[in-house]
Amino acid sequence: MRIARTYRWGGDSAWPLPLSVAQHSLTVLALRRQWSKETLGVEQQLKCLLHDGEEAFLSFDCITPLKGVLGQPFKDVCDRLMGAIEERYSLRAWQPEEYRVHKEADRIAAACEAVHVVGWQRHEVRDVLGITHSILNEDPLPRPSGYAPWEPWPADVAANQFLKELHTLTQAHRQ
Q1: How many C-beta neighbours within 10 Å does residue 29 have?
Q2: Most buried residue among 59, 84, 86, 119 by CB atoms closer than 10 A?
Q3: Cα–Cα distance measured from residue 115 to residue 34, given in angstroms and rounded to the nearest whole number
Q4: Where are the alpha helices (DSSP H) in the chain?
């Protein structure tokens, strides 16, 4: 599964393995579930899980500063790919408040990854990367047995966890 072999942070990692987009997506979903006062709707959960789905088709996770340089044509391609994913899974567009909360979770996940996975210092995350969001100490992601908090999983483990979640959510979304 390509999303488990598409790596965040350009593949940079302080661990033996890089962090996959699949594991990142599961982390964002875990954060959203933790923050929700009520059970998060199935469609919202599915959108969180698939929020970086276009990166699997592109085979890379484009860092935010580079997106600006690549410009509107790159954004258009990403938007078309995400549109295809949304159509495939019968997902409606994000509502403004739901998207705001989702992006908060996405940015907090990025801040945490920068520190706990890549090895940046907290002040570097703020001063160099410009990420001012909280950096959690505790990994919100339930992890398979044998893995440390924040440790990147091998691609097959990330794929299995992602597909398990995707299957559960798509089955619930069809009902």
Answers
A1: 27
A2: 86
A3: 21
A4: 21-35, 42-49, 54-58, 64-88, 96-113, 122-127, 155-174
* Domains of the chain, CATH where assigned: 2-174 (1.10.3210.10)
pTM of the model: 0.95
Find all residues with CB under 8 Å of 119, minimum gap 6, and list them: 13, 14
Whether residue 33 contacts residue 122, with contact meaning beta carbons closer than 8 Å, is answered with: no
Are residues 121 and 127 in contact, defined by beta-carbon separation less than 8 angstroms? no
Amino acid in position 175: Q
pLDDT(65) > 80 = no
Three-class DSSP category at 7? strand
Q: For residue 20, which phi and psi values (nearest 5 degrees)?
A: -85, 155
Of 35-39, 68-72, 86-90, 121-125, the poorest mean pLDDT is in 35-39
d(Cα 149, Cα 31) in Å, to the nearest integer? 14
